[in-house]
């Protein structure tokens, strides 16, 4: 199973993981050292004041009468009070950044994912504050995705459940007899829900980094050819010609053949849906310096501009699509688990090009 190479999901992009010296050493390098320096300076200050005050008191007390000693003690008390106030001010200023971190962490733990640390007000703990803010942003995004998922899931399940309810009620009311044909219709809707829930389970595992890959050295061209052969009858029925282009002797790549086949399948199915009136689907394999790329090029209707930015998100689909809207999300998550990605190279009235690449 692959693990994070560049830190956990909440770690800021582009920053080294693990941080040099560990979190404790980072805090010590910032606020800890400053607090220690302030404490040492204050102790020296107190020691000097104590020596001076002691000398003055000793000199004055020995040279004045008993009745005139109270101003000396009053002055010494004032100096002590001033020293304590200075100490309190230093302690508060040193503790304020730590208190801000603790307060923000507590608010995040209570579900207030909008809580942030003002790193400008706590430069001594900027690294820790930045990491905590990044964690808050990731938690907020995850919570938004969870809410959106619940909303989308409810919407997607509503249709098959409504069909099942209508069929069952018609049997109860005696409108239909509940024969094999009606039972087959109910079974179809149940299978739709099962596929939807299974797709969500796999997608959740992949996005959470818990998807186990069975990696092996393999020929990506073989998988491309197999997927093309599998869907050629469907394509021919729709008037679509599938063509495979590849170099004579492509290099092998490390991949999970089951997951990559599923990714290719989802891309091909998505392309075929975009060509209801026929056309050409070209699967072109090419090799860059350190990666192998498969371009899935169709001559279909293109992708609607309003959904283009969200095309790889869950349940994203065009208004006339009969799919679940999970195919591209699953395909991309599988490829990203291999260290690669899927990108839209081109889209328009003349068709769409989706490029899937895997590192070598």
Strand and helix layout:
Blueprint: H1 22-63, H2 70-109, H3 126-172, H4 180-207, E1 216-218, H5 220-237, E2 240-245, E3 253-255, H6 257-273, E4 279-287, E5 291-298, H7 327-337, E6 341-348, E7 351-359
Parallel strand pairs: 2-4
Antiparallel strand pairs: 1-3, 4-5, 5-7, 6-7
Structure description:
The chain is an alpha+beta fold. The chain has 3 domains: 22-138, no CATH class; 144-207, Orthogonal Bundle (Helix Hairpins); 216-359, Heat Shock Protein 90 (2-Layer Sandwich), CATH 3.30.565. It contains 7 helices and 7 strands. The strands form 2 sheets. The chain has a 5-stranded mixed beta sheet with strand order 2-4-5-7-6, with helices on one face. A two-stranded antiparallel sheet has the order 1-3. A hairpin with a 3-residue loop joins β4 and β5. It is elongated, with a radius of gyration of 34 Å.
The CATH H-level homologous superfamily of the largest domain: Histidine kinase-like ATPase, C-terminal domain
Through-space gap between termini: 18 Å
The biggest sheet, with number of strands, parallel, antiparallel or mixed sense and barrel status, is:
5 strands, mixed
CATH class descriptor of the largest domain: Alpha Beta
Spatial strand order of the main sheet: 2-4-5-7-6
Assess the beta-strand content as a share of residues.
5-15%
Oligomer: single chain
CATH architecture of the largest domain: 2-Layer Sandwich
User: How big is the Rg?
Assistant: 34 Å
Instruction: Please provide the ordered H/E string of secondary-structure elements.
Output: HHHHEHEEHEEHEE
Mean pLDDT: 76
Helix content: 55-70%
- Structural class by SSE content: alpha+beta
The CATH topology of the largest domain: Heat Shock Protein 90
Number of separate domains:
3
Uncertain stretches of 5 or more adjacent residues: 1-6, 21-29
Write down the overall geometry. Answer: elongated
Give the beta-strand count: 7
The number of helices is 7
């Amino acid at each position: 199973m692959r693990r994070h190479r560049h830190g956990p999901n909440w770690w800021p992009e582009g920053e080294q993981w693990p941080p040099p010296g560990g979190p404790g050493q980072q805090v010590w390098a910032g606020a800890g050292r400053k607090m220690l320096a302030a404490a040492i300076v204050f102790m020296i200050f107190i020691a000097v004041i104590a020596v001076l005050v002691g000398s003055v008191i000793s000199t004055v007390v020995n040279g004045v009468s008993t009745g005139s000693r109270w101003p000396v003690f009053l002055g010494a008390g004032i100096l002590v009070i001033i020293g304590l106030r200075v100490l309190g001010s230093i302690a508060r200023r040193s503790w304020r950044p730590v208190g801000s971190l603790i307060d923000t962490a507590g608010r995040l733990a209570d579900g207030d994912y909008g809580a942030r640390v003002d790193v400008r007000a706590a430069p001594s703990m900027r690294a820790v504050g930045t990491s905590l803010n990044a964690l808050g942003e990731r938690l907020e995004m995850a919570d938004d995705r969870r809410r959106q998922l619940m909303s989308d899931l409810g919407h997607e399940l509503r249709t098959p459940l409504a069909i099942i309810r209508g069929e069952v009620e018609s049997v109860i009311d005696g409108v239909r007899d509940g024969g094999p044909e009606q039972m087959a219709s109910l079974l179809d809707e149940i299978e739709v829900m099962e596929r939807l829930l299974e797709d969500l389970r796999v997608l959740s595992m992949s996005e959470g980094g818990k998807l186990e890959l069975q990696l092996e050295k393999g020929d990506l061209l073989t998988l491309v050819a197999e997927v093309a052969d599998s869907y050629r009858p469907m394509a021919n029925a729709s008037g679509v010609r599938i063509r495979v282009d590849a170099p004579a002797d492509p290099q092998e790549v490390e991949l999970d053949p089951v997951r990559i086949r599923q990714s290719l399948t989802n891309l091909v199915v998505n392309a075929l849906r975009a060509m209801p009136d026929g056309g050409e689907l070209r699967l072109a394999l090419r090799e860059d310096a350190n990666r192998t790329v498969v371009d899935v090029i169709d001559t279909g209707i293109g992708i609607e501009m309003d959904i283009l930015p969200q095309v790889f998100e869950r349940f994203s689909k065009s208004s006339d699509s009969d799919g679940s809207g999970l195919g591209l999300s699953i395909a991309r998550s599988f490829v990203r688990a291999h260290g690669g990605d899927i990108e839209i190279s081109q889209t328009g009235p003349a068709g769409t090009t989706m490029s899937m690449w895997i590192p070598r």
